[in-house]
Amino acid sequence: MLNLFSNNKTIIDAKTLQELLDEILTPKLEQIGLTKATNYCWHEQNMKDIRNGFTYNQLKGAAGTFTWGVNLNFLPIIHSDKIEYHRTAKKYMHHLFEWTNEYSNSFIGGQLKNGVTTHFGIKEARKSIINLFDKYEKTIAKWFDTAKTVENLIDIAERQVSVGKYYDIHHPRPNYVLAFLYAKANQIDKAVKLFDTLDNNEFGNNEDLRIKVKSKLLDLTV
């Protein structure tokens, strides 16, 4: 990735980066109910069906960006040919989420500038993290405000599926998440119809696993 900020500065080490993130981001994220869980992730630590979370993502080229989204405790995720859930206070995964506009658009030829931070130089890193969060703070808060219910999330997932593009490289993909949201909302016909269109790659080309995951989908409507 093109280095946008270096100016011959030294790359800060992991400890310094984590200290900057804790200084800049933790107080602001705590204000919207997110608790620091790991060096780069803040999320709600409760047992709700829908939990908000935020991640600082390190990128190639000594840069970083943000991800914000929700964890759904009813969504099965395939990992190493097994089905797992993220249901405990400490276990979190973004299931439906957003990136900064610049980072998203970089996958379709857009520019990263103003959508990433730099890790070159302490002063530069601090300034870039502050600037990027200031730029997206209201957007993040608004997104969480409109992602509080299953019905809200259906709207978000439908929009992401419709847009496609960079959303198609999300993991899990929005159409997979949407099928389970439909099921959770007792829209069984929509859930099954969408699930049956999912590519076998979603299930590691394992038909037995696909059948097991579908049974989890159907269980949500019982």
Q: What features would you highlight for this structure?
A:
8 strands; 6-stranded antiparallel beta sheet; alpha+beta; elongated; two-stranded antiparallel ribbon; 18% strand; 222 residues; 7 helices
Topology:
Layout: H1 14-30, E1 35-38, E2 41-43, E3 50-59, E4 63-72, E5 77-79, E6 82-84, E7 96-99, H2 101-105, E8 117-118, H3 122-145, H4 150-163, H5 174-184, H6 188-195, H7 207-219
Antiparallel strand pairs: 1-2, 2-3, 3-4, 4-7, 4-8, 5-6
Describe the structure.
With 222 residues, the chain is an alpha+beta fold. It is 41% helix and 18% strand. It contains 7 helices and 8 strands; from the N terminus they run αβββββββαβααααα. The protein has helices spanning 14-30, 101-105, 122-145, 150-163, 174-184, 188-195, 207-219, and strands at residues 35-38, 41-43, 50-59, 63-72, 77-79, 82-84, 96-99, 117-118. The strands form 2 sheets. Strands 1, 2, 3, 4, 7 and 8 form a 6-stranded antiparallel beta sheet that branches. It has a two-stranded antiparallel ribbon with strand order 5-6. Helix 1 runs parallel beside helix 3 (122-145) and helix 5 (174-184) packs antiparallel against helix 6 (188-195). The model is unreliable at 1-6 (pLDDT under 50).
